[in-house]
Amino acid sequence: MAPRITPIAWAGVACAVSAAATLVGMAVVGPAAARAAVMGAPKALPYAEAVGRTHAAAKAVLAGAGAESCLRGKLTNALLLMSSSCEASGERNPLCQLADRAAVVTPMSLAFMRDTSTRLLALIDTPAGASGSARP
Question: Which candidate, 65, 130, 63, places its Cα nearest to that of 92?
């Protein structure tokens, strides 16, 4: 009787094929383009637009303009867009660093959202905080 391939074995094959395709894609189009095509990641907006959306979300949180769950979603989405935009544009400034750190915090308490919003607005309003790359 021929060996039977279990679903677990197929999962391993799918992961191996996916990893190989990623490596091939990186070799053909380069690592930056392969990173930019991640499924499920937010589309990278122009940096200035991402800053604007982050500013609006932070203002909404501080104003209490909506239900806590809606504000949490608005801030989380803005942070993810900011992080994606920073990555796409090569920015490494304090605003980008804060967005990267804050976007992964779960669950976000209201106090955390307010503190983060205050810090985001301070960085956006400070020329060195939101512009001018601090690239290594």
Answer: 130
Task: In whole angstroms, give the CA distance from residue 91 to residue 84.
Answer: 10
| Predicted structure pTM score | 0.66
In whole angstroms, give the CA distance from residue 120 to residue 82: 11
Per-residue pLDDT of the chain (136 residues), as tens digits, is 555 544 444 444 443 333 334 333 434 444 444 344 456 665 789 999 999 999 999 999 999 999 999 999 999 999 999 999 999 999 999 999 999 999 999 999 999 999 999 999 999 998 777 775 443 3
Residues in the chain: 136
